[in-house]
Amino acid sequence: MHKKEVENLSSKSWEDIEEVTPDEWDLEMIERAKMVNDGHGVPIETLASELGVKLCSN
Hints:
Layout: H1 24-36, H2 44-51
């Protein structure tokens, strides 16, 4: 297995990202996600099958 080198092309870092207060739309999306989330994850194989995507291993 070969390790790929990743080059950071951005001069910005996480510290440069402005933190903002969620607006009404953000809060609504958070509430919707809480209502829909059953607390269980879905295996990637299941998602791939549902989407008709073939998973490859390296």
